[in-house]
């Protein structure tokens, strides 16, 4: 009696073809990519030193948040209502130079469609909010306050909101692309979306096997 062996699939037979992948829905492709990430996660896992450094840095940031609470309360109780700044011109000129640089990088990255758009737009948005905040609170006299309020309502705040939306949209598009989702596929809010830290292995189209007989048989000329 001869024992039968279970045939094993060759790499070309077990590979997923492009036609099969095209028939999957965006949810099925997302599930496939998630399973591939779990299979390859151990290969790209962070080392023990990096995990320790990440825990220490997270704890340090939490400690900074706790320490900032009494510091802010102390400043609110001890700072004077008025203060004469010695470097007023350098302060605002330097701030505007930084704002101009960040705005230029944001415009360039949006034009060229580069990933630096995300941090550049976020930084520029925060700088515009800071600009409006300090313009309003440091305005001297009624006329300057009205001018600062008008520029904030019709210039800095709308531009900051648009840049914030641009950065959020870019993050969502990048997350969809990394997970193999369609651009119209629903996604969870950013504070609930996990970071993508595991590389996704590429999926190649299968190579058609060549039979030994076809490879050894010479082609016949039709002349």
Topology record:
Elements: H1 11-14, H2 18-23, H3 26-40, H4 48-78, H5 88-112, H6 117-137, H7 141-179, H8 212-216
Helix pairs in contact: 5-6, 6-7
State the helical fraction.
Answer: 55-70%
Low-confidence stretches: 9-13, 201-212
Biggest beta sheet summary = none
Total number of helical segments?
Answer: 8
Globular, elongated, flat, extended or rod-shaped: what is the shape? extended
Strand content: under 5%
What does this structure look like?
- The chain has helices at residues 11-14, 18-23, 26-40, 48-78, 88-112, 117-137, 141-179, 212-216.
- It has 223 residues and is mostly helical.
- Among the domains are: 46-79; 86-183, no CATH class.
- Helix 5 (88-112) runs antiparallel to helix 6 (117-137) and helix 6 (117-137) packs antiparallel against helix 7 (141-179).
- Mean pLDDT is 78; it is low at 9-13 and 201-212.
How is this structure best summarized?
The protein is an all-alpha fold and 223 residues long.
Key descriptive features of the protein:
extended; mainly alpha; single chain; 65% helix; 223 residues; 8 helices
């Amino acid at each position: 009696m001869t024992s039968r062996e279970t045939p094993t699939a060759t790499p070309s037979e077990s590979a997923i073809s492009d036609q099969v992948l095209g028939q999957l829905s965006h949810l099925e492709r997302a599930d496939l990519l998630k399973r591939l990430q779990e299979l390859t996660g151990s290969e790209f896992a962070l080392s023990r030193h990096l995990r320790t450094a990440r825990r220490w840095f997270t704890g340090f940031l939490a400690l900074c948040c706790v320490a900032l609470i009494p510091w802010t309360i102390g400043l609110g109780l001890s700072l004077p209502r008025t203060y004469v700044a010695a470097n007023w011109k350098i302060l605002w000129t330097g701030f505007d130079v930084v704002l101009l640089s960040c705005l230029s990088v944001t415009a360039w990255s949006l034009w060229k469609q580069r990933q630096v758009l995300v941090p550049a737009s976020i930084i520029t948005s925060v700088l515009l909010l800071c600009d409006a905040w300090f313009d309003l609170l440091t305005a001297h006299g009624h006329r300057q306050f009205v001018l600062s309020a008008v520029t904030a309502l019709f210039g800095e705040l709308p531009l900051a909101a648009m840049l914030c939306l641009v950065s959020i949209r870019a993050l969502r598009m990048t997350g969809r692309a990394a997970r193999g989702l369609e651009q119209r596929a629903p996604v969870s809010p950013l504070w609930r979306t996990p970071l993508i830290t595991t590389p996704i292995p590429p999926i190649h189209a299968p190579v058609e096997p060549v039979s030994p007989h076809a490879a050894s048989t010479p082609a016949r000329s039709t002349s």
